[in-house]
Specification:
Layout: E1 5-13, H1 14-20, H2 22-30, E2 33-40, H3 49-61, E3 65-68, H4 78-95, E4 99-103, H5 105-118, E5 122-126, H6 137-150, E6 156-159, H7 162-171, E7 176-179, H8 197-203, E8 211-216, H9 225-235, E9 240-245, H10 255-264, E10 271-275, H11 280-286, E11 289-292, H12 301-308, E12 313-316, E13 331-334, H13 339-351, H14 353-367, H15 372-384
Parallel strand pairs: 1-2, 1-4, 2-3, 4-5, 5-6, 6-7, 8-9, 8-11, 9-10, 11-12, 12-13
Helix pairs in contact: 2-15, 4-5, 8-11, 9-13, 12-14
Length: 386
C-alpha cells in the first residue's frame, strides 16, 4: 500500500486554523494528503475551549494529526517561540512533509525558518500584513524588514488583499506571489436565515422600530469597538441598539474596558456585549446594519459575511477593508477613530431605512466575489504547484 504524503498546517494558535483553514485542510485531503496541524491548542485562542477541542477532534476524524506548540503571538517571546521552532523542525524530520503551509506572523517565522533549515518548501498565507498605508511607523520598523527578509525562504506567498499583494509583488523575494479573496464564505448560507429575523430580534429584546447595529469580532483593541460605543453615546438615541458578538482573550482582552465604558456612559440599555456566539447568521438576519471599525484588517470576514446577509456597512477605511467597502456605495467608511463620522453614518442608516435596504441588496451581489468556491479553486492551484 502506497504511503500517504503529508503536509504540515502551521499557525501560532489552533484558533487560526480552526477559523480559517478548514476548507484548505479538506482540499488537501481530497488531493490525497494526510494533514498535520500544529499550533498552540492550550493558550491564546480567541475562541472557546470547546471550539478548540471540537477542531482537534475534527482534524483527527478527517484522518489528520494535531501537535501542541508553546508558540505565542508575542514578538519577543523568544523562549516559547524558540521551543516551538525546535519542535517544528523535529516534526518535519520525523514526518518528511511535502511542504508546509504557515499562517500568522509568528507562525510564519517559525514555519519559514524550519522550512529553510530542513529544505522543505513553504507556502505562507499572510492574513493581512502589519504594515500598510496608515499603519503606525513602529509596524513598518518591526515587521517590514522581517517579512522582506523571510520572503526569500518562501516558495509561494499568498495575500488576501490588493494592497499587500501589490507591495509584496514589487518589493519582496518570494518565489511566487498569489492573490486570493480571503478564505471565502458560503454566500448563499446567510440569506437562508432571514426567516429567523423576527424571532431573533424578539430574543434580543428589540422592537420593530429599533435600529439594530451589530459588530462581530473578538474583543480586542484592533477591532476598535470602542469608537462605535462612543458614537452611540454621542447620538443619544433610544431607538439605536448596538450589539457586539465576540469574546476577549489574553493581554489584548477589551471586555472589561468596554464594560466600564458602557457603565460610564450609562448605555446599558443601548449597548450589549453578547459574548462568543455560534449563531452569527441569525444575528446578521436580525440586524439593520453592521459596524466594522477595525484599526487593522487583512480583509475582514465579518464585513463580507454582513454583505452576503444583505446589510449596509459602516467600516474604517483602512487596509483590506478597502477592497470591498466603498464609501457611499456599500454604506459608509471613515478613519478608524472618527467618532463623529461613525455617529453620522449610524444616524443616516437609521433614518433612511429604504436606502439602507437598497444598499444591502446590492451588497449581496458584491459579496459573491468572495465566495468560497473562488478561493478554493485558487488554493487548489497553489497546492498543485508545490
Amino acid at each position: 500500500m502506497e504511503k500517504k504524503k503529508k503536509v504540515l498546517m502551521l499557525a501560532t494558535t489552533a484558533a487560526m486554523s480552526a477559523q480559517f483553514n478548514r476548507q484548505n485542510i479538506l482540499i488537501l485531503e481530497e488531493m490525497g494528503y494526510e494533514v498535520h496541524v500544529a499550533g498552540n491548542f492550550r493558550k491564546g485562542n480567541p475562541i472557546s475551549d470547546e471550539a478548540v477541542k471540537e477542531f482537534y477532534h475534527w482534524v483527527k476524524d478527517n484522518g489528520g494529526k494535531c501537535f501542541q506548540l508553546p508558540s505565542t503571538r508575542k514578538v519577543f517571546d523568544f523562549i516559547n517561540n524558540g521551543v516551538a521552532l525546535k519542535k517544528v523542525i523535529n516534526l518535519i524530520r520525523d514526518n518528511d512533509y511535502e511542504f508546509i503551509h504557515c499562517h500568522t506572523p509568528i507562525g510564519s517565522v517559525i514555519g519559514r525558518l524550519a522550512g529553510h533549515r530542513t529544505n522543505t518548501p513553504v507556502i505562507y498565507t499572510a492574513h493581512g500584513l502589519h504594515f500598510f498605508k496608515g499603519s503606525p511607523i513602529s509596524s513598518w520598523i518591526l515587521y517590514y524588514p522581517v517579512e522582506k527578509f523571510l520572503s526569500r525562504y518562501t516558495n509561494t506567498m499568498v495575500l488576501i488583499n490588493h494592497e499587500d499583494y501589490n507591495r509584496v509583488l514589487r518589493k519582496f523575494h518570494a518565489g511566487r506571489v498569489v492573490y486570493v479573496p480571503g478564505i471565502g464564505i458560503d454566500t448563499e448560507e446567510f440569506l437562508k436565515h432571514r426567516e429567523n429575523r423576527q424571532q431573533t430580534r424578539e430574543a434580543l429584546g428589540l422592537s420593530d422600530d429599533d435600529f439594530m447595529l451589530l459588530s462581530v469580532g473578538e474583543l480586542s483593541g484592533r477591532k476598535n469597538h470602542e469608537v462605535i460605543v462612543k458614537a452611540v453615546k454621542q447620538l443619544n438615541r433610544s431607538d439605536i441598539k448596538y450589539f457586539i458578538a465576540g469574546k476577549g482573550k489574553g493581554k489584548d482582552n477589551e471586555e472589561e474596558h468596554l464594560k466600564k465604558l458602557i457603565e460610564k456612559y450609562d448605555l446599558a440599555d443601548r449597548v450589549t456585549l453578547l459574548g462568543f456566539r455560534e449563531d452569527a447568521p441569525d444575528l446578521y438576519a436580525a440586524a439593520d446594519g453592521v459596524a466594522f471599525p477595525s484599526n487593522r484588517e487583512g480583509l475582514g470576514l465579518a464585513g463580507i459575511e454582513a454583505m452576503a446577509a444583505g446589510l449596509p456597512l459602516l467600516t474604517s477605511n483602512i487596509n483590506g477593508i478597502n477592497d470591498y467597502s466603498v464609501n457611499g456605495e456599500t454604506g459608509f467608511s471613515y478613519p478608524p477613530n472618527d467618532v463623529s463620522g461613525f455617529a453620522e453614518g449610524i444616524a443616516y442608516l437609521a433614518d433612511h431605512r429604504d436606502w439602507s435596504r437598497e444598499v444591502g441588496d446590492k451588497n449581496i451581489e458584491r459579496a459573491k466575489d468572495y465566495d468560497y468556491h473562488i478561493a478554493d479553486e485558487i488554493m487548489r492551484g497553489v497546492y498543485q504547484s508545490m
